[in-house]
Specification:
The protein contains eleven helices and eight strands. It is of the alpha/beta class. The protein has a single domain, classed as TIM Barrel (Alpha-Beta Barrel). The longest helix has 19 residues.
């Protein structure tokens, strides 16, 4: 079993808390990039989108980071995308696969990618979406194809076969990196690497458990016994 230092897949920290990002840059050399989204920003109390983004770009010190457009109209999405692209060479533009009316973003994706703007296509969950995006992306423009494997699993479907097929679909697009989005446990990191994903996002909870990867199970069992014993003792439980 590999350890987290032996992983070949790139770990992107997912969140919107600047101090956590700063700490990751300083202490976690295995973090190779960052992602965020409007939901995470709102949860973190961000009120100034542009101000937050520009501060974060300074914090991550050249590592790639994705910022999402938030309009529901494609003309406005395009305007926002070009502004985000101007913030720095490490800023990728997150474009949702559709707007809220289920209208496809493919024409916009094709136009922006042809103009050399690095994209992160987000909220994807089907192989048809992966095929459409793969065909729309310019072969020489770096891009990220974010498939929400964790949400696929939440719907009661095994994401592993789908992610393996998605990697195969994108094989002839070497600049398009498949990303396993919304992981739920450390096992997903191993699964993502084994299915051919190039990137996986990780929240602080998963990053905290990452050193457990490859841990001896007998040792882990003993640690668990000790935890139960120490907690019972500290609580002063009696029977």
């Amino acid at each position: 079993m590999r350890t987290h230092q032996q992983l070949k897949i790139k770990l992107f920290m997912d969140g919107a808390e600047i101090e956590s990002m700063r700490l990751a840059v300083a202490t976690m050399p295995y973090i190779k990039g960052f992602t965020t989204n409007p939901t995470l920003m709102r949860k973190a109390g961000v009120t100034d989108y542009t101000g937050f983004a520009k501060e974060v770009i300074g914090v991550v010190k050249g590592l790639p980071i994705s910022f999402e457009v938030f309009s529901d109209e494609f003309s406005e999405m395009e305007r926002e995308a070009r502004i985000i692209h101007s913030w720095g060479p490490n800023a990728s533009v997150k474009i949702p696969i559709t707007n809220t009316r289920a209208e496809s973003s493919i024409p916009l994706i094709k136009r922006l990618s042809a103009d050399g703007i690095p994209l992160n296509i987000t909220a994807m969950m089907t192989l048809d979406q992966v095929r459409d995006v793969g065909q729309a992306l310019h072969p020489h423009t770096p891009s990220i194809v974010s498939v929400f494997a964790g949400r696929i699993a939440d719907a009661g479907r095994d994401p592993v076969p789908l992610m393996r097929q998605a990697a195969e679909i994108l094989r002839d697009r070497p600049k398009a990196e498949l990303l396993w989005a919304s992981p739920r446990e450390v096992l997903n990191v191993v699964q993502a690497e084994d299915t051919g994903c190039k990137i996986i996002t990780a929240t602080r909870d998963i990053l905290a458990k990452l050193p457990l990867l490859g841990k001896d199970l007998a040792e882990y069992s003993l640690d668990t016994v000790k935890m139960f014993y120490n907690d019972a003792k500290a609580a002063g439980f009696k029977i």
